[in-house]
Write a structure and sequence with these properties.
The chain is an alpha/beta fold and about 350 residues long. It has 10 helices and 18 strands. The chain has a 7-stranded parallel beta sheet, sandwiched between helices. The protein has a 3-stranded mixed beta sheet with strand order 11-10-14. Keywords: Isomerase, NAD. This is NAD(P)-binding domain-containing protein. InterPro entries: NAD(P)-bd_dom_sf.
Length: about 350
Amino acid sequence: MFSVAFTSQMTSSLSPIAGTSTPPYINFTRATTCVSIPSRSTTPKLSLHSPPHRQCAAKMEVETSSSGLVGADDLLIVGPGVLGRLIAQKWRNDHQGCQITGQTFTTDHHDDLVKMGITPSLKGMKASQKYPYVVFCAPPSRTPDYPGDVREAASNWSGHGSFLFTSSSAPYDCYDNGHCDEDSPVVPIGRSPRTDLLLNTEKVVIESGGNVLRLAGLYISFMQIYLRFIKHDFKEALAVFYRGAHVYWLRKGTVESRPDHIVNLIHYEDAASLAVAILKKKPRGRTFLGCDNHPLSRQEVMDIVEKSGKFSTKFVGFTGTNDPLGKKLNNSKTRQEAGWEPKYPSFSQFLELSK
């Protein structure tokens, strides 16, 4: 695979992150995975391309999914976005021949799901079967009744296997850059509408016998091969897109938040592999934590970004002084129980490994 270097002025046919008109980066590196990102106004979707023989197998599975038979390893993913699709990919790698269903709010990306071997399903359609494994990873922003949607997902779980809800680490009641783990106190109900919503939804999950995975800040890079018109001819080029808090801060330039606020991170692939590890263990009524155990201040994150040399846009700085501090997460208990370690142990190692 070749290396290419561009400025931030790229063709409009590319799909940049989170509604940006042009990606604030470039410096390309060797590709390890070919990924295309369908255009969308808010959140980009990840479409993983499989070899032809895998695509044929996926097509056969989709075509035979109407049989109504449920396998012991079949999986329902509610909200098959970036994280959900990675979970599906990793689950299928370990459970060849299983059927994976992806439930969505609209039919916008059903064709993409079919190409990945995921059987699309629309929210509101009554399920004809219950699944031994269910993952709910849809965000709360698309629904007026988040706990109700999770309750509906739990009703599609057979009670065998495992039910997992991906939540956020936001409920931990720590705002002084102190230490937190799986068992740390959470924000009392009534203090914050955001944490109230998450905690009330988590309660539905635990009461159903499911499990909660509280995730730190997610990030990832996308690689896409496309055609670019250069000197009267089309040439293949490799584009790399990043998604995460650092991309948002780069785009803003100046951020009215304090630089010493501690943030916690986890790569999307690691979040997916942890979710799969928990599903396999089949626990009941547990709360797990997903993070890389390398908390960083906001300023440290942007210093790493600057040092990496992968981004052409220059970050100006953080200007806040009075906003709350963060927390330092540690998920050693989760790692031991799930038998899991991250592929990307830290944000800095991720940027180094992506060279």
